Every structure is written in structure tokens, then in C-alpha cells.
Amino acid sequence: MHLAVVSLLALATCASTAPAVSLESITTTTGSTTSTTPVSSATTYPSGTTTNTSSGVGAPVSVASSTSSAASSTPTVAYAPDDPNDSFWSQFQNTVPVPERGSTGASILGPQNVPLDREGPDFLAPPSTDSGSVENVKWSLSLSHNRMQSGGWARQQNEHDMPIATAMAGVNMRLKAGAMRELHWHTTAEWAYVLAGSCRVTSVDQNGRNYIADVYPGDLWYFPAGIPHGLQGLNDTADGCEFLLVLDSGTFSEDSTFQVTDWLAHVPKEVLAKNFRVNASAFDHIPSRELYMIPSAVPTGTPEEDGVTSPQGTVPLPFSFAASKAPATNTTGGSVKIIDSRTFNISKTISVAEVTVDVGGIRELHWHPTQPEWSFFIEGNARITVFAASANARTFDYQAGDIGYVPPSFGHYVENIGNTTLKFLEIFNSDVYEDISLNQWLALTPPDMVKAHLQLSDDTISKLQKVKPIVVGPGLL
């Protein structure tokens, strides 16, 4: 016993003066046996990061400095509990959900909406880490009123539905093949992501320069505030198209846009005749009210064939972007594709990250410094815990067709809790995409400070990454 105590004291003394661990090899001693383990071969990138080439992953990694010389700190509060807090999503799909976690909760004796509880397992049985109060940051488009027309439909989300979402609003729209979203404009900019099918977009800017293009799934368009435009469904890949619109104001309403038919219906025909220098009878058949959507034939020509030549030329910055053809960055747990004004130059108020997360993976713990995140879920199932400071944290569950919203600087993650790939959009009212990675922040902070805060081991600190992981694969349990 005395020998063991002396040995421990000696080890502690040595640890305080031990040199940093070599990145070329790690030497371990067990009893009388000493072994040296080489660190995996690595490729150095221009930024100074490394890629582990022996693992076959190829994702950039760069480990933090050693803390072997750091002094130990004394914890001042109790350690966080080890309560199991996995999502019950998989478990609830084949059973009647119950609000029980560990020794807390009880079964439901009264009425129960089983399908809704299966969609929101972390609302019914929240993790023990949830605390305090966080305003609702989830809206399902299935709860939105649908405006149905002969040419398609449209449903929206704005502050009326999710009051916290003040910076952006969204519209999900469907156009049949040939159907047109009538010529119109907004006081806000319009950004769009094509979900399915194909669509033709047309526009004219304030200098008389025009634009026409066809867009496909994963492609984008953007019209600055006040710029008139029109949309038409095509049929080369599907019966029309479906897309997501994002407007850079939470108060936007799809029912309050400027429509060309609505305007002309409220201008005296005598004025129309003077304006266009024709007889007033030329306007005998204009609609008496807005049309909004117009059934029509599918265009037979290409954009180049059907477009009108403007003496002022075409717009200098294209209003659409073939994001579907842009490469994504692969990570250990999925992929990310960022499109902002640096690549889609005209998009001055909206930027996006298209993210995929493998089964069991996670969009890493992070936050966005100055802009809220408006999220749209395309495929799969996710849970997000939103941290609002001062011990306020709440977990929300999302599935395809849901919208999320995270205010600026609120810490969060996006975990794939389903059994298929998760795909979603992170959208921002900003010209440039920005985020802060918790992993990177800790890796680039002096190790003794990190250890003093979190009581992490030297081994754990050495695995922190100086390059953002972004999307991480399933971890060790």
C-alpha cells in the first residue's frame, strides 16, 4: 500500500514537468512492458491542418496541444450526471410512446395523440439536460393553411406561425407543368431552392436588362427586393415543379405581393391607354382581380429560343445558380455545401448550407455569431437542443417538411436520430455564411484553460480538432 502511494506521488510529480507528447509517436508503459505506437501518417494542408491518410476517411483533422504541463484544477461544483439521454425515436415507432425516462415520468391514462408523440419523442420524454424555457422554434408546413389554385398550391410560415422567427419567412410552392406563378414583385428579396421537378424563371431589372433560365432540383434563384419576376413549371423531369421560397423578413406574407393583374385591374383603362399608347379597348379582357397562378401550356423552346432580346442586354449577375452541380465537402459524418454571395454573387441577403448527416451522425455543436438560422428539413429525422444561456435549453424533433429557427448565438447541434440519411438546409439572412465550432474553439484555446473549465483528460484534449469537423460520424460510447 505504501509503495502504491509513493508511486502515485512520483507519477504526479513527473506529470507536472513532463515534456509535450511527440506527434510522431506515443510511448506507453504497462508494468514492465514499454511499447511505442506511431501516429498515423498525415498529409499537411496549406492551412497547417492535417488529414489522416491511414484511416481512409480523408477529412481534415488537426489535434490540440498537449496539456501534460498544465496544473490540475479543483472542481467547484458537482459533476454533470451520466443519465442516459438518447432519443426514443426508434423505440417509439413500434410501441405506444410513454413519457418516462429513467425513474421519472409515468404512463398516460387519458387520451393521447400517438402519431404526434412518435414525431416528437424528445418533447414527450425530454432528456434530463433540458432546463428552463426556450420559445418554440419548430413549425411544420403540414400545419400551414394551403392556398390551392387551378395551377398548383402554396403554403407559408411567417411570424404569425412562429413568432420567434423575425428575420425570415418561408413559402412552399407547387406549380403544375405549364402553370405560371404570375408576374409579380415584393418589398423583400426572394431566395429559392428547387425541391423537385424543373422550373423556368424570368426577370427584368431596373435598367431594362432581362434574364431567363431553367432550374432543377438543388438549384437556386434569387431576386433582389423590388425586382419583377415570373415562374413557370416545366415537364422535362416531372409534372411541373416544387420549391422552397425564403424571404428576408419574418413578416412577409405570400398573400400580400404585388401582382401585375391586380395592379392593372385598379388602374383606369383610359390611363392604361395613355401609358401604352393604344386604344382603351385593348384592355377589355384584362382580369378584374389577381390571378396568382395561371394554367398554361409548357414552353417548347429553350430559354435561349424563348427569351426576348433586350437592347440593354442581360443582367450582369445571373439570378439563378446551378447549386446542384456544385461539389459538396465530405466529412466523417456526412457532407456540407455552402452557397453564399462569394459563389452566388447576386444573393446579397440570403446564404445557405446544404447539409447531409449519416445515420447516427451529428452536425457538430456550434452557433452563428450574428444571424439566426432558419432551417428546412428535406429528408430524415433530427433532434436539436437549443441552448439559450442561463440554464435554458430545450430539445425539439424534426422531420421532412418541418422548419426550425435558432436565434443568433444560441448554441445547438443537429443529430440524425432516424434510420436514413438526414438532409436539411441552414439558411441565413446574410451575404456570407458564418459559424463558430465548439470543437475548434476548444482546440485553439490554451489546453490548461480548457482543462480548468471542463476537467477533460489530456487524451481527450489531444483529440480536439483545430479544423471544424462540421458533420461528425457516430461517436464512441
TrEMBL record:
SMART domains: Cupin_1 (SM00835). Binds 2 manganese ions per subunit. Residues 28-78 have a biased composition (Low complexity). Pfam families: Cupin_1. Residues 28-89 are annotated as: Disordered. The keyword rRNA processing does not apply. Residues 141-284, 320-462 form the Cupin type-1 domain. CDD domains: cupin_OxDC_C, cupin_OxDC_N. One of its GO terms (biological process) is oxalate metabolic process. This is Cupin type-1 domain-containing protein.
